[in-house]
Amino acid sequence: MNIELIEIRDFLASHPPFAQLPQETLERLPQRLSVRYFRRGTPFPPENADPPCVYLLRRGAVELRDANGELVGKLAEGDLCDMICRPTPEGGRFFGNTSEDTLVYALPCAELADLRERHAAFAEHFDQSISSRLRKALDIIVDAPAAGTGLMTVQIGNMINRTPIVANPETSIREAAQVMSEHRVSSLLIMEGDRLAGMITDRDLRSRCVAVGLSTDRPVREIMTEKLQTAQIDTLGFQALITMTRLNVHHLPVLDGARVAGLISTTDLTRFQSANAVYLVGDIHRATSIETLVQISSKIPELQVHLINGGATANHVGQAISAITDAITQRLIVLAEADLGSPPVPYAWIVGGSQARREQSSHSDQDNALLIADHAKPDDDAYFAALAKIVNDGLDACGFVYCPGDVMASNPKWRQPLRIWHKYFVNWILKPEPMSLMLANVFFDLRAVHDPDNLFADLQERVLERCKANRIFVAYMVANALKYRPPLGFFRNIVLIQGGDHDHTFDIKHKGIVPVVDLARIYALSGGLPETNTIERLSAAAEHGTLSKDGAANLTDAIELIGTLRMRHQANQLGHGKKADNFLSPDELSPLERGHLKDAFLLINTMQESLGQRYQAGRFA
């Protein structure tokens, strides 16, 4: 084989789907290709080509447009244009032009059909839709880590190794304690017939009975916890771990439908997971000083690396780290109140941004605010200003740096009574100016992490009703969201960052994650839905009807793929002692991963266009 054919073979071998072909086929394939050159501005794919061909771009660039002339995609080096060989092209027929002088390898459609017939792995690329390829790619990336994934794949029903130990509500506390001691268990399910009525733990016996001098002859119903978080038997171990971490509980009743199947504990889970967020959260709630919290928070980057190496997706990592941030915030509030005394009026500590969405990576910046009861007096602000300073300074010391835009409770503007917060939202919704839209991206993702008097629920309910009823506001949100487009041609230097510290990279957070976060927020607000997590918003929007089920599934796969690649990039940096960032070089990805990432960007772009047309977003840009 001459040098030119070897170069073609090596190029094919490094680009999907040709990389799926066996070596002997790759050796012969270059001789079946033709090399064609197109000057800039030439229609592409070429009209009336004989024979019709599939084209692989070797150099140059092509812009593809739909029947209305709208740009729908860009092709660059290594991209495949096979629309002529498809009898019913996915998404309809596109038309294009070369935007640069372009060199391609052309393979007749008949030859392509022969390869597809003889090589199943190669054929899958063409037989599957973009969404199917994306789902498979995510599975491959998540399954890629070595053995030890345990909690990522095991269902909690498979961890239950004994019949649940139970008692009825009228059992005396003494008898319940004897049963627990006899069976050597730290918890007891309380059953009323076939119904789960509650649960008691060793901690309940200590804090609700012994510590308060309650007679052990009293019925166990007086000390049991009635409102229980449960999980179904097919829940994955890691999902159970996240739930227990977020709620700071160590036991989780497991149900098979409505039937009680057993109980899962942190001890059961830690048999599968050597370092986990539950223990960190437990340590946080026992911390007596900010210095201790700082020491605990230093373990968060290590946790992120461990989770990614164990096969966790971006959603898994985000849920775990956000649960830890919540716990640190709650503990700082406890420490602040211990120092300052009881608050003069009820209040809620509310968080925004990635913490509110439970999508944090290690040591994000902080976005938070204070919602204070309306009957607060002006003099009460001194207390809340002091509390906000303690918590904000503590979070910063723990690595959750001050918000660059000063969206924090220490800023008096974001430390207001309920009536003022309501006015804020009314103004943002009725007057969607650029500043209002920017703030909406933070404050329409709010979640309360400390709210003993449930103040936030009233604000959230009224805000969602106003959003749902105001189509013009949603249209402005759509127009603002469409400013953040995926880098469809990110393989090309012209769309990568040039020069500086991030030369030859792209911002995977703002170019990949943010567009989906924005879309999910809009689907949720337009339906008046209370969810804040992006994946939960997509699912809820599909159930509500503001988004198709296929659209929700595709966007979920897209953000999981992009987010997991981002988390893997950060884990690699942290593992090498570097500071984590969002600037990913295409060189870090295999050709197959670059192809899958482009599939994700194409899906996001399609959903953006669809939403823009629905709300005629161009009128509000």
From TrEMBL:
Pfam families per the UniProt record, alphabetical: CBS, DUF294, DUF294_C
| Signal sequence bounds | none
Q: Where is the CBS domain?
A: 159-216, 224-280
The record's PROSITE patterns line, in alphabetical order, gives:
CBS
Q: Which GO terms describe its molecular function?
A: [protein-PII] uridylyltransferase activity
For whether the record's keyword set contains Phosphoprotein, the answer is: no
Print the keywords alphabetically.
CBS domain
Q: Which PANTHER family match?
A: CBS DOMAIN-CONTAINING PROTEIN, CBS DOMAIN-CONTAINING PROTEIN CBSX3, MITOCHONDRIAL
Under which name does UniProt file this protein?
A: CBS domain-containing protein
- Name the source organism: Thiocapsa rosea
